[in-house]
Amino acid sequence: MVAGATQVTTDFSSVGWGGPCPPVGDKAHHYIFTVHALKTEKLDIPAGATAALVGYMVNANSIGKATFTGLFGR
């Protein structure tokens, strides 16, 4: 990670990104990713913030976004 960056607890109930993980042998799954351009250099996110709070703060400070879809199977 970049110096000064932090990771928060996700919907997986762990810190950091869990990545795509479809069941082995299942057909490929679609994964939708959205990146945001923010109007601030840093978000003031409290320690222990939930994924929902982080999402709210990202959306409240977003000045633009792009979405792309990936397909992944195992």
Question: What would you say this structure looks like, in words?
Answer:
The protein is of the alpha+beta class and 74 residues long. The protein has a two-stranded antiparallel sheet. The relative contact order is 0.30. The protein has a single domain (1-74), classed as Phosphatidylethanolamine-binding Protein (Alpha-Beta Complex). It has 1 helix and 2 strands, in the order βαβ. It has one helix at 51-60; strands at residues 29-38, 62-72.
Assembly form of the protein: single chain
Distinct helical segment count: 1
| Envelope shape | globular
Provide mean pLDDT, rounded. 91
**C-alpha end-to-end distance:** 27 Å
The largest pleated sheet is described as: 2 strands, antiparallel
Q: How many strands in all?
A: 2
CATH architecture: Alpha-Beta Complex
Number of spatially distinct domains:
1
Helix percent band: 10-25%
What structural category characterises the helix and strand content?
alpha+beta
CATH H-level name... which superfamily? PEBP-like
How much is the radius of gyration in Å? Answer: 15 Å
Residue share in β-strands? 25-35%
The spatial strand order of the largest sheet comes to 1-2
- Write down the CATH topology: Phosphatidylethanolamine-binding Protein
CATH class descriptor name? Alpha Beta
Task: Please give the structural blueprint.
Elements: E1 29-38, H1 51-60, E2 62-72
Antiparallel strand pairs: 1-2
Would you kindly provide a brief summary of this structure?
14% of the residues lie in helices and 28% in strands. It has 74 residues and is an alpha+beta fold.
